[in-house]
C-alpha cells in the first residue's frame, strides 16, 4: 500500500496481524522494511500485535525525493503516517537510523509515543564512525563507485561482530548480498547519509525526554558503540538499557532470536520507567547459548 503525506512524499507501508491487536510500528534503518518482515513481523503477529511496517523516504518502493534529508524530516514523515492511519499513541521499534528517528520522535512528538525500543541508535558518533560517515557522504556526492567485492567486505566488517565474521556458514551469503550495495546511490542514499551525519542532539535535549524507552546496545557495535547507548539511557529518566552480547550493529541479522526475545519481554512487561536499584540503566547479559 502507498500513502501520500502532507510532508510531500509518498511512502510504501504494510499492516500485518489482527485488526484489534495493539499497534506496533517498526521503523527501519537505511534498508527496506523487508528486513523486519522476515523475522520480527511473524513473531509479533503471533503475539497478537497489529504491526505496521514502512519504507523510509528514499528507499524503494517509497518515493525518492531530492535531498537534503534530515532526521527531523524523517520523523515528520513518521508522524504524518501515524496521523493518516489514525494510530494515535502506540509502540515503536526502531533500528539504526530508525532508532535515531524515534529518538527525535520522543523529543518532538511524545503525544504519539506510548513507548519505544531503540536498537543500535547512533546518537553520538565515535571518531571511527565520524570517519565512516564522512567517507560515505563524500563518495555518494561525487558518485564514486566501490568495487563490489570490496564493498561487501567493508560493510560486513563494520556491521557484524567477530564471532559472525569468523563463521563461514553465516558470513558467506551476506558477503554476496552486501556486494549489491556498491551500486546503491541516488537521492535516497545521499539523503540518509547526510541526515545521519548531521543528527547530533545535545545531552540536555535528550535528558528532557519523558516517554518510556528501551535502549538496546550491542557488545561489538562500532556504528553505535555500546558505551554511548548506555550513556543515552542514563541521561533519560524513563529509559532502560539492555545489551546483546557477541553481536555487531546488524543484530537483526546476527541475533534475530535475541532481538525478538528482548522485544517480546519489553512488550509483555512494560517495565520501562520503574525505579532501578543503583542506576537507571540495566545491562542485560544475553544467554551465550544463543551466540553465533
UniProtKB/TrEMBL annotation:
InterPro entries linked to this entry: AB_hydrolase_1, AB_hydrolase_fold, AB_hydrolase_sf, Epox_hydrolase-like
Segments of this protein annotated with the region Disordered: 273-292
Keyword terms, alphabetized: Hydrolase
Any GO CC annotation of this UniProt entry: membrane
Domain of life: Bacteria
Molecular function GO terms recorded: hydrolase activity
Gene3D superfamilies (alphabetical): alpha/beta hydrolase
Record field: compositional bias (Basic and acidic residues): 280-292
Nucleotidyltransferase listed as a keyword: no
Residue span(s) of domain AB hydrolase-1: 22-256
Pfam families, A to Z: Abhydrolase_1
Entries under PANTHER family matching the protein: AB HYDROLASE SUPERFAMILY PROTEIN YCLE, MONOACYLGLYCEROL LIPASE
Protein's name in the database: Pimeloyl-ACP methyl ester carboxylesterase
Annotated source species: Actinopolyspora alba
